[in-house]
Design brief:
Heat Shock Protein 90; 392 residues
C-alpha cells in the first residue's frame, strides 16, 4: 500500500513537472511571438514612415512630376506639376493631358508616349503647354515607363520642365551672333567703301562751287545727302561689331541724360510732343562708354517719339533696384504688336518706311557690351524699354 502511494506521488510530481515545463515553454513561445509582433510593428512603422517620407518628397518636390496612362490621361501629379498646369491636383486626376497642350503640340505629345512604349526607354520631347488661365509656354517632357511594365495598365512616369528661359537665352544668343556677324562684315568692308565715297563726295562738293553746275545744284545736293545717308548706315553697321573698342570710364547716367535733354526736347517739340525726366538721386556712377550711351538713349527716345501722336508725353528716367541701376524710356504710344515683339532687335527688321532696321539692334548690341539687360513692357497705353545695368 505504501509502495502504491509512493508511486502515485512520483506520478503526480512528474505531471506537475510536465505542466510547469509546458507552461514555461508556452511562456517562452508567447515571449517569442510578442518579440516577433513588436519587430513586425517596428518594421511596419518604418515602412509607413518611408512611404510617408517618399510621399512628402514627391508632393513637395520643386520638380514637376506627372504620370500618364496609355491614353494620355493624368493618373498622378505632384503639387508643383499641378501648379504648372494651373489646376488643383484632385481635379487633374483622370483629366486628359492633351487639354493642357497647345493644339499644335497634341500630336507630338501622343507620338512621345508611343515612342516611350515602343522603345521602353526614356524619351524627351519639346512641347508648347497651355495651362489654365495662363499664357502658353515652351516645355520639355521627359518620360519613361517603369521597369517591368506591360502593355496592360502601362504608366508613363514623366518630368515636366518649363524651358521659357532656355528658349529666351537661345534666341538672344542667335540674335547676338547675327549682330556680331553683321558687325564683322561691316568692319571688313567699311574702309573699302568709305574711301571711294569720300572721293565722290569731295568732287560733288567741288562741282557745286562751279558756276556751270548751278542749274544742277539741287541734284548735286541730293547726291551729297544720299552719300551722307549711306555713310551713316555704314556707321550703324560698325556699331554692331562685338570687337568694337570701348572707352569705358565712370559716368553718371543722370548727367548723360541731362546733357542730351536740349537735343531730345528739340526733337519732341518739332513734332508737338513732350519729354519729361524722372532721374533718381541715389544711383551710383557706372563704367560706361559715353558715346555709346548717348547713341543708345537717342535711339530709344527717337523710336518712342515716332510711336506717339502730337500732344503725348515721353518719360525718361533712372532708379536703383537691388544690385542694378535702371534706365527707362516710357512712351504713350499704342504699344507693340505681338508679331513685332518677337522680332525686336533683329537686324534689318523695321516697320518704318525709311528705316534701316538697325536702331534697336544697335541698342541691344551696346547693352550687351556693357553687360546690361534690356526688358520691354508694352500695352495699349504705351511701351517701356528698361536697360538694367549691374552696379559696380
Amino acid at each position: 500500500m505504501a509502495q502504491l502511494t509512493s508511486r502515485g506521488k512520483r506520478k503526480a510530481a512528474a505531471r506537475t513537472e510536465e505542466r510547469v515545463r509546458l507552461r514555461l515553454d508556452q511562456q517562452e513561445r508567447d515571449l517569442d511571438l510578442e518579440i516577433q509582433c513588436q519587430a513586425m510593428q517596428e518594421m511596419l512603422g518604418e515602412l509607413e514612415e518611408s512611404r510617408s517620407r517618399y510621399a512628402r518628397l514627391y508632393d513637395y518636390s520643386p520638380v514637376r512630376f506627372a504620370t500618364f496612362d496609355d491614353k494620355g490621361l493624368i493618373s498622378d501629379v505632384n503639387l508643383a506639376g499641378a501648379a504648372l498646369l494651373g489646376k488643383e491636383r484632385s481635379l487633374l486626376i483622370g483629366s486628359p493631358m492633351a487639354t493642357f497642350v497647345d493644339k499644335d503640340s497634341v500630336k507630338p505629345f501622343f507620338d512621345h508616349l508611343r515612342s516611350c512604349r515602343l522603345t521602353g526607354k526614356q524619351v524627351i520631347t519639346d512641347l508648347i503647354l497651355s495651362p489654365k488661365n495662363a499664357a502658353p509656354f515652351p516645355a520639355l517632357i521627359i518620360s519613361f515607363p517603369p521597369p517591368g511594365a506591360g502593355d496592360y495598365g502601362l504608366q508613363y512616369m514623366s518630368i515636366i520642365v518649363d524651358i521659357t528661359e532656355r528658349k529666351f537665352m537661345e534666341k538672344e544668343l542667335l540674335r547676338l551672333e547675327s549682330l556680331n556677324l553683321i558687325g564683322e562684315m561691316a568692319a571688313g568692308i567699311a574702309h573699302e567703301v568709305r574711301n571711294p565715297m569720300t572721293i565722290v563726295r569731295g568732287f560733288i562738293q567741288l562741282f557745286t562751287r562751279k558756276r556751270e553746275f548751278t542749274p544742277y545744284e539741287a541734284q548735286l545736293n541730293l547726291m551729297i545727302t544720299e552719300l551722307d545717308r549711306a555713310n551713316a548706315i555704314i556707321t550703324e553697321y560698325l556699331s554692331l561689331a562685338k570687337n568694337k573698342p570701348l572707352n569705358k570710364s565712370p559716368h553718371s547716367l543722370n548727367r548723360i541724360v541731362e546733357g542730351l535733354m536740349p537735343l531730345m526736347e528739340s526733337d519732341a517739340l518739332h513734332s508737338q510732343k513732350w519729354i519729361v525726366s524722372q532721374l533718381s538721386d541715389n544711383i551710383p556712377e557706372l563704367f560706361l562708354d559715353i558715346q555709346e550711351m548717348r547713341q543708345l538713349i537717342l535711339n530709344f527716345v527717337r523710336n518712342g517719339l515716332e510711336a506717339m501722336l502730337s500732344g503725348e508725353r515721353l518719360t525718361i528716367g533712372t532708379f536703383a533696384k537691388g544690385h542694378q541701376v535702371v534706365l527707362f524710356i516710357q512712351d504713350q504710344g499704342t504699344g507693340i504688336p505681338p508679331e513685332v515683339m518677337s522680332k525686336l532687335g533683329t537686324p534689318f527688321f523695321t516697320t518704318k518706311a525709311n528705316g534701316t532696321g538697325l536702331g534697336l539692334s544697335i541698342c541691344y548690341s551696346i547693352a550687351h557690351r556693357h553687360n546690361a539687360q534690356i526688358d520691354v513692357k508694352t500695352g495699349d497705353s504705351g511701351t517701356t524699354f528698361s536697360v538694367n545695368f549691374q552696379r559696380p
